[in-house]
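Lab notebook, bench 4. Still working through the backlog of constructs that have no structural model yet. Next entry is a single chain of 135 residues. Request: give me the structure tokens for it.
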Amino acid sequence: MPSLLALANVFAFPTEYREGVPRVLLEAALAGVQIVTRTMPGAEVIRDGWNGFLVPPGAPSMLAAKILELLGNRENGRVVAGRAAERVRKEFSVEHVVACQAAVYRDLIDSSRGTRLKDDKNTREERAHPCGAPQ
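Model written out:
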């Protein structure tokens, strides 16, 4: 997949399906391809204008305009694509996702006991939540 994606100048993903985080968006970002997708649940991989572009559903003319804009400014496209790859490596890696899930379970266990787990190095107040979520 990375080899095929790397051949593209732009990855347009106008899906109408609600599928969580589409793996193909992660793959396209890691391949260094500029991304245009529609606003949908799961599109949080893309921050509009910063590491890709979002268009509303059912707006093919906006999708086409965004694709043409990206093709017309390759230098900006490289910057945007680089940000997307960096974000995916940082926030969507297996290690990060596992740490986030473990933190959720830890918080649930803590709240169900009515106390927090005691651990000299990582009390709840000192422990940074790996997902940036409020504790």
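Notes after review: The beta strands are 10-13, 34-38, 53-55. The first strand starts at residue 10 and ends at 13. Flag for follow-up if needed.
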